[in-house]
């Protein structure tokens, strides 16, 4: 295994998803882009989650 964030891990998973906004929030984090929700008229953010093999979250990124 490898020492990652003070945890010994052999395998990690990184998953991302997007979410769009209806209002005026998160301007510094959001941008226009390809929308799987079929809402190209709305800004969106990308959210990422890093997990250990047993599903325990290690880190996230917005």
TrEMBL record:
Top-rank taxon of the source lineage equals Bacteria
Question: Under which name does UniProt file this protein?
Answer: Transposase IS4 family protein
